[in-house]
Model the fold of this input.
Amino acid sequence: MNLVIQGPGFELRHAETLAKLTGARSIEPISSRACRLRGATRHDELAGWCEERALDCAWVPEGRRFDGLRLLAMDMDSTLITIECIDEIGALHGVKKEISAITAAAMRGELDFTHSLRERVALLEGLDESALERVYVEKLRLSPGAEALIARCKAARVKTLLVSGGFTFFTERLKARLGLDFAHGNVLAVRDGRLTGGFIGEIVNPAAKAKAVRDTMATLRAAREQVVAIGDGANDLPMMTEAGVSIAYRAKPIVRENATYALDYSGLDGVLSLFE
Done:
């Protein structure tokens, strides 16, 4: 088994210390912020040691290659991008505090996602549709490493799926901007240029996210072990269980506990270090 260590504060001396701690047979640099310790042995002090230094650690099987993948599926809000779009839309309607509280509870798995989303969107009733464009231009930012991860997917011919409980106003723009292959999201209802507080069509809830991954796998004829799924909230867990490798990205505790790997400090390009 190999041990991958990475993070913005990674230094070679960290690898040297951990090589001694784990009895690794060699240190293999991956990038300036990551390395692979080949032939490492698990040690009880490892996780705490890395956490104290804001480093991500992962036990990775020998020979797992990124170019062997067929599909990378990812959540949008607080995963591909740094914000929760609905919270920022709410800020322009004077209801960010109320919406953010519901969002946080839903992402922790404390509320039914579908009900909580209906409740949040209802609070947006009457908001001018132009607020969506303002959020996209003024607030939406890609997560660190997002473009590098997507570029590697394209180079390796790994298809990309953006599947979100958020809104198509944002998913479709990101799909076009980044050249993603597939995207799913919720359609906000608009009447006379204002949000009605409702949706058009069925809601993309956790079950629907999982189905989108399964359907895309079927389209690509991809096996489970050829799929990676990345998310941060409890609503992402069903889709993450469809994948052979699931990655909790700066995620809620319930997601970290159930994912194959967790990236708490690295950017999205940290996904690449988990493969050879």
